[in-house]
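Tokens as discussed.
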């Protein structure tokens, strides 16, 4: 198994952090860790575990937060995959399955204004559901993944696109590290839904704000160590720099985000 694929249950308080972790999980998926799952008549395989996550809260009051999150991955016949944050189906692939194209769905977490006094007077943002196309290419030098999505829930009517590059490095038979670089573009509608301020939401301390399209860049480093019995200890860090469309919003308290996690899971 060349690497690991991390999918965190997206129950964090800000959609930007949740989306960052979704991109992180996508990069691990590109490494296709379930390719080494036991073969045989059973076609359903997966990974189950938990992780502790430390992250920046970027909406409202500025602070660092911790979360205890379950890790859940399911893969059926190497074609369909599912996790709490979304799923998809590979529809076409090369003969060696290193190049794949498919359809995917992602869930973006909303937020409630009553959870932070600095958000008083704002309307709640509901969870949105995005659907679109995805692709991944596992090469000997590195892995590339990409996706293009549009909101199908009718809440944001926004669009997004992702591009990521990662390099799984086998340090030893059991230990691997994966540096990565990624970018995610958001349309003006998506930015406005999560970070905009309408005329009815203004206050003496909060001006109106119309979201504009923007791109967030992220760099990360993940690592994992396998033990007997299919258990893996994993951890990682990442840093995101938000585009001005997000950081200029009066409800956003910083222009970047730092995430660290440590956890373990079991392959079945």
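Sequence:
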């Amino acid at each position: 198994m060349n690497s690991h694929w991390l999918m965190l249950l997206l129950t964090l308080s800000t959609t930007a952090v949740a989306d960052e972790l979704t991109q992180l999980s996508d990069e691990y998926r590109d490494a296709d860790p379930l390719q080494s799952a036991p073969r045989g008549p059973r076609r359903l395989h997966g990974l189950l575990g938990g992780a502790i996550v430390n992250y920046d809260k970027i909406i409202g009051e500025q602070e660092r937060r911790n979360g205890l999150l379950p890790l859940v991955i399911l893969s059926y016949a190497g074609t369909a995959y599912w996790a709490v944050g979304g799923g998809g189906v590979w529809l076409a692939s090369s003969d060696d399955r290193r190049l794949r194209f498919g359809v995917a769905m992602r869930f973006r977490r909303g937020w409630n204004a009553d959870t932070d006094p600095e958000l008083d007077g704002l309307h709640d943002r509901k969870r949105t559901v995005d659907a679109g196309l995805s692709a991944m290419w596992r090469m000997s030098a590195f892995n590339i993944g990409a996706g293009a999505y549009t909101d199908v829930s009718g809440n944001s009517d926004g669009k997004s696109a992702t591009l990521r590059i990662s390099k799984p490095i086998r340090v030893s038979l059991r230990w691997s590290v994966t540096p990565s670089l990624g970018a995610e573009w958001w349309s003006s509608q998506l930015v406005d839904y999560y970070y905009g301020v309408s005329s009815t939401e203004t206050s003496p301390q909060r001006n109106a704000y119309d979201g504009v399209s923007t791109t967030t860049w992220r760099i990360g480093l993940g690592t994992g160590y396998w033990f007997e019995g299919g258990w893996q200890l994993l951890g990682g860090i990442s840093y995101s720099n938000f585009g001005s469309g997000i950081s200029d919003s009066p409800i956003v308290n910083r222009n970047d985000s730092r995430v660290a996690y440590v956890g373990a899971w079991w392959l079945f």
